[in-house]
Design a protein that fits this description.
By secondary structure, the chain is an alpha/beta fold. It folds into 2 domains: 159 residues, Bordetella uptake gene, domain 1 (D-Maltodextrin-Binding Protein, domain 2), CATH 3.40.190.150; 114 residues, D-Maltodextrin-Binding Protein, domain 2, CATH 3.40.190. It has 12 helices and 11 strands. The strands form 2 sheets. The protein has a 6-stranded mixed β-sheet with strand order 2-1-3-10-4-11, sandwiched between helices. The N terminus is likely disordered.
Length: 323
């Protein structure tokens, strides 16, 4: 009888211990593999950023971190995968600004970027830069304004509705000039068109034009960032160069699905900030034309809301639609 009572007491004590221990165990994060969705093909700047972060995140959290490329639908396929995942911080996505602040104004999408995506934080900025062919005679903003007012002037951008395309429209309004945009399928072909003289100037991502600036084919007029880019300190911002009140930031950020607990969002944010502070990480990303630019979830939310409003108003004014 005594043995039975002893066993009962032991079972009660064990159950009490489990009741206390299980919630604590449930709060261990991460507790399994973390999946980072890249809704673009392998090999681009977003894929590079994801793989650099995944490697170091795996080392710091002690769990496997894998990158899954799910291209298609202007990132909608990858975002849909994220939205169907458990909101526990183990599934994340890295997105550029376009699917978060632009695409929703251009066509019907199956997500609401303001409610379905929880910002972990910005990873990098992908600075837009205004360059001109070295033989075009446009070596300053003043020369650009004079040229645009004296004759029809065209300029290269990425695809219609891209951040560089919209930034070009903002630039014209800021300078009080009219130019003809010539859209290309990405920054690389746009850069080639500027360097070969097919168009005299263009607004592209920095990675596409850095080699051509270095070899003298292109002249850099300014970057569209609010401050000079650390990897290109001699190139002024467009505001410094003479474009009043002009910024057009292009960025990459990490997101979790709606409902992800705040404490896990903050833990991931802290881990990512530590990784982005590593000199070897900064070196790799800088070589790809990316500027390390971490921020907090709340700061990222503010940038998203501001960009969403700015681009939405411009797209409405331009009456742009992309099928």
């Amino acid at each position: 009888m005594a043995n039975i009572l002893h066993v009962k007491r032991w079972l009660v004590a064990l159950l009490a211990f489990i009741a206390v221990a299980m919630p604590a165990y449930a709060d261990i994060f991460p507790s399994r593999t973390i999946r980072i969705i890249v809704p673009y093909a392998a090999g681009g700047s977003i894929d590079l950023t994801a793989r650099v972060i995944a490697k170091h995140l795996q080392d710091s959290v002690g769990q496997s971190v894998i990158v899954e490329n799910k291209p298609g639908g202007n990132a909608a396929i990858g975002i849909d995968d994220l939205m169907r995942s458990e909101p526990d911080g183990h599934t994340l996505v890295i997105l550029s600004d376009s699917p978060v602040t632009i695409n929703v104004h251009l066509s019907r999408v199956n997500y609401d970027p303001l409610t379905d995506l929880v910002p972990i934080g910005r990873l990098v900025s992908s600075p837009l830069i205004l360059t001109a062919n070295a033989k075009a005679g446009i070596a300053s903003i003043a020369a650009l304004v004079a040229a645009a007012k004296s004759k029809p002037l065209s300029y290269a951008t990425a695809a219609i509705g891209s951040s560089s395309y919209l930034a070009g429209e903002l630039l014209q309004r800021a300078l009080g000039i009219t130019m003809q945009p010539v859209p290309y399928r990405g920054g690389a072909p746009a850069a080639v068109a500027i360097a070969s003289g097919v168009v005299p100037l263009g607004l592209t991502d920095t990675a596409a034009v850095l080699p051509m600036i270095s070899n003298g084919q292109l002249v850099a007029l300014g970057v569209a960032e609010p401050a000079r880019v650390r990897s290109m300190p001699n190139i002024p911002t467009l505001q410094e160069a003479g474009v009043p009140n002009f910024t057009a930031m292009s960025w990459l950020a990490m997101f979790a699905p709606r409902g992800t607990p705040d404490d896990r969002v903050l833990k991931l944010n802290a881990e990512i900030a530590t990784i982005l502070a590593m000199p070897d990480v900064q070196k790799v990303l800088s070589a790809a034309g990316l500027e390390v630019a971490p921020n907090s979830p709340s700061e990222m939310r503010g940038i998203i809301e501001a960009d969403y409003k700015k681009w939405g108003q411009l797209i409405k004014t331009l009456k742009l639609k992309v099928q």
